Amino acid sequence: MRAAQRLRVLVVAPERHPLRQPHAGGLEAVVWNRVRWLKRRGHDVELCAAAGSDFLGSGADLQLPSPRWRCIDETSDSENPAGHRGRIADAFARVRRRLTDPVDGVDVVDNHSLHGDPILWSRDAGIPVVTTLHTPPLPDMVHAARSLPPTAPHRFLAVSQYTARAWSDEGVDAFVFPNGVDSSEWRRGRGGEQWVWFGRIVPEKAPHLAIRAARLAGARLRIAGRIGDQRYFTREVEPLLGDGVEYVGPLRQPELCALVGASSVALVTPVWSEPFGLVLAEALMTGTPVAAFDAGGASEVLAGLPGCTVVPARDVSALAQAALSLAARSASPAFRDRVRAAASARHSLARRHREVERVLTVAAHSRMAEVDSLIAGAEAVGA
């Protein structure tokens, strides 16, 4: 299918990890799918992302430097090695200069960076920018947002009401555009006996608490995902492995879907201000029910959906009991069908992308009042 109006779009990815499978996290998966969909729609899409990403051209001018860690034990998703922020700023300055080139310029920037500089391109280069807020407020981004004049061709989107409220408290207003899941790739599974936990292995995702819940319930658990904090994994997760708990590593999407779909229940254990929690929607799309901690936007993502139980954050006993109850129902094909159908209706990726395409199209012509009206209409119908 071709887009009604072809756009020249620069998608700015989160800068820490390459955009490729196995995805480093839900944020990277969301942006990877965005680039792929916009290209399929016929738009002229360029990607600014870490070296090694899919969809990067042969030139180096849009490649961002990856963190240079001295040893594996230092790797972290929340800290930067010495000098890394400066290297990123230099790379973004190079990209900004490119945007003003009459040949290489773009109509609109679809920004998913966790750095403040791309926000300011709308002010400094007059380029329309649509920034999606995927995280709790970050000081660098808050400062950049506060530096924008009212006339800057810029709009903020947030992945949940919870996230939008958190940014609003910092003086940054955003419209809510939740994430979506590709139902053609996240297919219904037949279920199984083991439990599953998947995502980034970092302290704020707390897979060690999922292991404790499985142990308490006498259940087998498989853990999948990239180790984003090696010290945490070595200290809190690795000693708990074995005796029915297995770490299977990071998986590409088809293998991850098969694992989740062959499970009786998925445990989701955030102990931070979870902005959205893509794993929630992904698990439900396979028909696998979800037992989750009530943290950040998790309750918002799951509200009203069948096959979900939310318990107080860090309450391992309540999580175990909720998971046992859901796992007992998961063997029913009718139950799994109902879980998937409801998740598809709520979190369809195709619907999300069509709405974002309309926003980018209007923003490309700097008709920001129309962007506001368009987004407000999407929110009104439950987008």
Automatic annotation (TrEMBL):
Organism encoding this protein: Microbacterium tenebrionis
Gene3D superfamilies: Glycogen Phosphorylase B
EC number: 2.4.-.-
Keywords, ordered alphabetically: Glycosyltransferase, Transferase
Name listed for the protein in its UniProt record: Glycosyltransferase
Residues in the signal sequence: none
The UniProt record lists the keyword Transferase: yes
Pfam families from the UniProt entry: Glyco_trans_1_4, Glyco_transf_4
Domain Glycosyltransferase subfamily 4-like N-terminal: 25-184
Gene Ontology molecular function, alphabetical: glycosyltransferase activity
Keyword check for Transferase: yes
Superkingdom, natural source: Bacteria
